[in-house]
Specification:
Blueprint: H1 12-27, E1 41-46, H2 52-63, E2 67-71, H3 84-91, E3 97-101, H4 105-115, E4 119-123, H5 129-143, E5 150-154, H6 160-172, E6 175-179, H7 188-194, E7 197-201, H8 204-208, E8 213-216, H9 228-234, H10 242-246, E9 252-255, H11 267-272, H12 274-295
Parallel strand pairs: 1-2, 1-3, 3-4, 5-6, 5-8, 6-7, 8-9
Helix pairs in contact: 1-5, 1-12, 2-12, 3-4, 5-6, 5-12
């Protein structure tokens, strides 16, 4: 694995390796036997702001022995002004690796191609691979296995998180159900191309029944603020609440945060499942450290 650009680009073996090694990484925090990023400087290049992603990567790089510089949108504008291929060829001569959070998936892929240094997709409009790898680890940590898994995603079925879930289901063979309004369902072509066991429906209760995991994300993603009023109207019934949990009483409730209580999830359900949700958030650190370590083995 030279880069971590998407779930789509990973094999089943690579996903399973990351999930399995993350348990060791988490258990050895504070007394790692090696520092694979010792003497290296990595850049976090964020055109989209973040709290958890920035903190988890900065802490993770330092705990693995590296140094880190943070470049926000005002410092560097990927794909605007200077061509991304030129930015990449300059950065690739100065840095040892890059973690990029931006809008276009092609920007991350082009940077990896031209920069020729390990590159991590920390979120694009197309995918959010670090989040889904973290979620898979968290599910295995709490459930013991990913075998016979049924995951239900409720909300914007065509967002980056949902798309990454589609590819995870396809690679690992578990069942994924997506409950979303018709206008916010993933393209049928994408679902078919993935080859996964994926059901797309407008029926939240039917999709949730018997699920092992109920998962949601914000209704209005970054960059979609102009659509807020329309989206809020469309998603009113696409919420994880007590009615949803009646048909999946043993399900893990997960949210990639930030959460808007009273919208995609009720206050009461969020607080009852807060331990799972914040464990999921913490596990970003451990999963990303595993990814960084594996990239340095090449």
């Amino acid at each position: 694995m030279k880069h971590l650009l998407s779930i789509e680009s990973l094999s089943r073996a690579e996903i399973e390796q990351i999930v399995d090694l993350t348990q060791e990484m988490k258990a050895s925090r504070g007394h790692h036997s090696s520092k694979p990023l010792q003497g290296e400087c990595w850049a976090l290049m964020f055109s989209k702001s973040s709290t958890r992603t920035r903190v988890s990567f900065e802490v993770g790089i330092r705990e693995l022995g590296g140094d880190v510089i943070f470049l926000a949108a005002d410092d560097i504008q990927l794909g605007r002004g200077e061509p991304i291929r030129d930015t990449a060829r300059v950065m690739g001569r100065m840095l040892h690796g890059a973690v990029i959070r931006t809008f276009a998936q092609t920007d991350v892929e082009d940077f990896a191609s031209y920069g020729r240094i390990p590159t991590v997709n920390a979120l694009t409009d197309e995918e959010h691979p670090c989040q889904i790898l973290t979620d898979l680890f968290t599910i295995k940590e709490l459930r013991g296995s990913l075998d016979d898994l049924v995951v239900t995603f409720i909300g914007d079925g065509d967002c980056n998180v949902s798309r990454s879930w589609i590819w995870a289901a396809a690679r690992l063979g578990f069942e994924l159900r997506i409950a979303a309004p018709e206008k916010f369902q993933p393209p049928a072509e994408l679902v078919a191309r993935s080859g996964g066991r994926i059901t797309v429906t407008e029926d939240v209760i039917a999709a949730s029944a018997g699920s092992d995991v109920l998962y949601t994300d914000v209704w209005v993603s970054m960059g979609k603020e102009e659509e807020a009023a329309f989206r809020l109207a469309q998603f009113q019934s696409y919420q994880i609440n007590d009615e949803t949990l009646k048909v999946a009483p043993e399900a893990l409730v997960m949210h990639c945060l930030p959460a808007y209580r009273g919208k995609e999830i009720t206050e009461e359900v969020f607080e009852r499942h807060a331990e799972t949700i914040f464990r999921e958030a913490e596990n970003r650190l451990h999963t990303q450290k595993t990814i960084l370590s594996l990239l340095k083995q090449i």
